Amino acid sequence: MKTASEEGHSGIVTLSIEVELGWGNHDTGNFERLSENGRTERHYLSKLLDATERTRVPISFDVVGHLLLETCDGTHESPHPDGWFRGDPGTDYHTDGLFYAPDVVADIDSASVNHELCTHTFSHALFDDVSRETAAWELQQAQDLSRRHLGRETSSLVPPRHHTPPYDVLSDCGISVIRPATKTRTRTKVHRFKELLAGPLPLSELRETDGVVETSCTTNPSLTAAALPSGRGTTHPAFRCLPASVRRQYHFDKLVQATERAVAEGAHLHLWCHLFDLSNAQQFRVVERYLSWLDSFRATNDVTIATMAELPGHVERAI
Asked: Angle at the Cα of 56 (from 50 to 62), degrees rounded to 5?
């Protein structure tokens, strides 16, 4: 099986952002990095969408299906074990904006840029911990909501917390593109510090496996910086000795260098983060700057900015 680079394609850049809000940690109850009712995340999503309108850079937004609901009673007949939905407040998006966000989905879907709305399962299900029946239920629920609220199904899946779903379930549920993570080797703490601060970012693999196109990513968010605060969280103490301006520049340089390398090698680069990761001034400044740079860069370089749904057209189909 040949990769995209072996086939002589131009460099490909894919950006994906996980929109999960409260569902990302409903099983742990840890919402420290999120704002009340998701107000800050909505604010920065609006700023991000404005930036993409200026730059015409499309993004794959990976949305937990339950967020499409305006309201529900908090109970769901599912094959999940009892207690899985205990975090669902059973209200509506005016009351609990971390668990219901049809307004967020509508804002993305109404943008003039051709963003993708792909699935992050119905309730942020962890595939390694659930049965095949539960995995199928999660994806079918998400597809049903997508048809009902958007008028279409999605062809792409970002598995929560990088868990691996059963691939035969994917095809049964209309999923043809998936974003698995490539685990990095164990490194020393010093090596890890340098890697997270200054990189380099690894390129991604774009391949087909069992009829599904895979676009690999890092385990840690790569569009946003580990050396800057994530959402409402605080910066890791290891990075605080450096001024924030220096840390921002390091990460911007990482993004630029990885993009230039993808183009030079005719390879694929997949950058990702959560919506809450970029929802502060420090992170957003870097992301916004990179989008502007990427727009200018593609004007004079052989680079394709492709959503996950568009990636099958860039990889050789197995015969």
From this structure: 75
| Runs of H (alpha helix) within the chain | 39-55, 102-109, 132-150, 167-172, 189-198, 244-264, 281-300
Q: Tell me yes or no: is domain 5-314 CATH 3.20.20.370.
A: yes
Instruction: Name the pTM for this structure.
Output: 0.95
Choose among 167, 47, 28: nearest CA to 111.
Answer: 47
- Say what percent of the chain tops pLDDT 90: 91
**Could you give the C-alpha distances from 134 to 97, 118, 165, 166, 248, in angstroms and in order?**
26, 19, 10, 11, 41
Q: Residue holding tokens 């069992």?
A: 210
**CA atoms of 274 and 286, how far apart (whole Å):** 15
Give the residue from 219, 303, 313 showing the smallest Cα distance to 269: 303
Whole-angstrom Cα distance, residue 316 to residue 1? 8
How does 102-118 read in b/e, with b if 16+ C-beta sit within 10 Å?
bbbbebbeebeeebbbb
At 255-304, the pLDDT tens digits run 999 999 999 999 999 999 999 999 999 999 999 999 999 999 999 999 99
CA 152 to CA 145: how far, in whole Å?
A: 9
Secondary structure (H, E, C), 273-314: EECCCCCCHHHHHHHHHHHHHHHHHHHHCCEEECCHHHHHHH
Q: Report whether 248 contacts 303 (CB < 8 A).
A: no
Domain boundaries, the chain: 5-314
* Beta-sheet pairing, 181-182 with 177-178: unpaired
Element (H, E) at 206: strand 206-209
Per-residue pLDDT, averaged over 77-83, amounts to 95
User: Cβ contacts of residue 292 below 8 Å, gap of 6+?
Assistant: 51, 54, 55
DSSP for 168-199 reads HHHHHTT--EE--EEPPPP--HHHHHHHHHH-
Residue pair 64/21 in contact by the 8 Å Cβ criterion: yes
